[in-house]
């Protein structure tokens, strides 16, 4: 078996990130995603979808088939969480501050009558307190969601196995 035919055989199975071009002498399709030794590759499967000359793989976010799909699904989930974090912690509070100043015109003072005493506050204080409350709610919700995610698959020993003694750290 020739060395060149082995590489083309391997390249026929690998999903590429470009349109099909077999006429180029220096075809880069033979270089798969991290195919150095036992690296991670994404092999074409029955789920490959041809779109305008590109062959894209279907990747399940819930049940990845191999390490390559797991890596891709975790990367996509991480990017989604990052975008959600930017929206929740930056875009929404910024929008609220602009909305309160521009549309609601919260630039004057707010008078709060408490019977005997009257408190006069700038409305910017109320506007900023709403943003601080938003941050508190968002961070508590993130902490609760992380706790729920970490408890989704508890490791419970079999009923006939004795509880192990704690090791390491402070006891």
Protein traits:
171 residues; mainly alpha; two-stranded antiparallel sheet; two-stranded antiparallel ribbon
Please report the distance between the alpha carbons of the first and last residues: 62 Å
Major sheet strand order: 1-2
How would you state the average pLDDT, rounded? 75
- Helix-strand pattern: HEEHEEH
Major sheet details: 2 strands, antiparallel
Q: Please mark out the parts with pLDDT under 50 across 5 or more consecutive residues, or reply none.
A: 13-18, 24-42
Structural class: mainly alpha
Layout of helices and strands, plus pairs?
Blueprint: H1 3-12, E1 49-51, E2 54-56, H2 67-102, E3 109-114, E4 117-122, H3 123-150
Antiparallel strand pairs: 1-2, 3-4
What does this entry look like structurally?
With 171 residues, this protein is mainly α. The chain has a domain at 86-150. The chain has three helices and four strands, in the order H-E-E-H-E-E-H. The protein has a two-stranded antiparallel sheet with strand order 1-2. Helix 2 (67-102) packs antiparallel against helix 3. The longest helix is centred in the middle third of the chain and has 36 residues, at 67-102. The chain is flat, with a radius of gyration of 28 Å.
In short, what is this structure?
This protein has 171 residues and is mainly α. The protein has helices at 3-12, 67-102, 123-150, and strands at 49-51, 54-56, 109-114, 117-122.
């Amino acid at each position: 078996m020739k060395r060149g035919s082995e590489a083309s055989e391997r390249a026929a199975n690998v999903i590429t990130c470009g349109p099909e071009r077999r006429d180029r002498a220096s075809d880069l399709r033979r270089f798969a995603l991290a195919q150095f030794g036992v690296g991670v590759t994404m092999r074409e499967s029955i789920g490959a979808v041809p779109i305008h000359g590109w062959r894209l793989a279907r990747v399940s976010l819930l049940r990845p088939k191999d390490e390559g799909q797991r890596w891709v699904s975790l990367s996509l989930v991480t990017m989604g969480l990052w975008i959600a974090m930017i929206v929740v912690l930056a875009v929404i509070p910024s929008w609220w501050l602009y909305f309160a100043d521009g549309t609601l015109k919260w630039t004057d003072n707010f008078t709060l009558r408490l019977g005997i005493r009257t408190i006069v506050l700038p409305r910017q204080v109320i506007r900023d307190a709403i943003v601080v409350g938003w941050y508190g709610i968002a961070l508590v919700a993130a902490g609760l969601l992380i706790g729920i995610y970490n408890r989704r698959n508890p490791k419970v020993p079999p009923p006939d196995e004795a509880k192990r003694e704690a090791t390491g750290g402070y006891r």
